[in-house]
Structures are given as structure tokens and as C-alpha cells.
Amino acid sequence: MKIDSEYVKLVPAAPKFDSEGNRVDADDTLALDNNVIMLDTALALNYVIKQLEKTQKELDELKK
């Protein structure tokens, strides 16, 4: 499964130092960006709710 790059953010590694005080570069980490995921979920849910309301209205009209 591939995750859209829009949902991924780069989290810089925390600085690390060796016993002599020299900075040691560590690998950055990829993480999911929950803000983007939540926004897309809210928009999708809003769309589905509107479709459901429209379908319910059509059903109510057919019942008359």
C-alpha cells in the first residue's frame, strides 16, 4: 500500500552528541501528518452526510 506524500511529514532527528561533545547526525523520521488526514476525513464525512440527507429527502418524497 502506498501513502500519498501529502499525508507524510519529515520530523528532524533530535541532536545527539558523542562523548567528546561532537554532534552526531541521526536519521530524520517520516511521520503521518494527522492535520491533513483529519481535514480530508472531515470533508469526506461532510460530503457523505449531504448525500445521505439528499437520499433521505428523495425517499421521503417517494413515500408520499
From TrEMBL:
It comes from the Bacteria. This is Peptidase S74 domain-containing protein. It comes from Enterobacter roggenkampii.
